[in-house]
Amino acid sequence: MQDLDRLVYGFGDTPHGRIIVARSDAGIRAVLFGEDDAPLVEDLHGRFPTADLVPAGMGMDRAIAQLVRVMQGEAAASELVLDLQGTPFQQSVWAALREIPAGDTASYVDVARAIGKPCAVRAVAAACAANPVAVIVPCHRVVRSDGGLSGYRWGAARKRALLAWETAA
Fold first, then answer.
1. Which of 56-60, 92-96, 114-118, 158-162 has the lowest mean pLDDT?
2. Which of 161, 102, 89 is nearest to 136 (CA)?
3. What is the mean pLDDT of residues 57-65?
4. Does domain 88-168 have CATH number 1.10.10.10?
5. Cβ atoms within 10 Å, residue 19
6. How far apart are CA 148 and CA 156, in angstroms?
7. Where in the sequence numbering do the catalytic residues fall?
8. Which of 53, 76, 88, 68 is closest to 13 using CA atoms?
């Protein structure tokens, strides 16, 4: 459960759909995909139920533009200041995901081995599902052991499109 804090949020359009970006004073806390603004705010509230959510209006334009540049391969994700909130296990999974190069994939088993927990495959999948920052922590690059696409919080079609786009870039 998050401590009560203030998250400022705004919306943007990316090559892969509508997003909501939320940041705390420390950095970006969430990047979520959706189709419409109202469900995006509901998703944000569901992830951070005790946070004071404040619409930023144009105050998020620069952060969203920077995020879009990262998504388009024009800037490095390391340029973004993140404020990821998660358990130590989730943090280790998310760090391992950031090591998967664009255009590559890894299996849940590969990620479990990379963090030194080879039997924690289901827990790795759960940490991927809990990822609050789409694309920045690239959980879309994790696939089944047979190379097939598995679930993705924002839909298999979006996962397929992200992977195809990264491979083509």
1. 56-60
2. 102
3. 80
4. yes
5. 23
6. 11
7. 139
8. 68
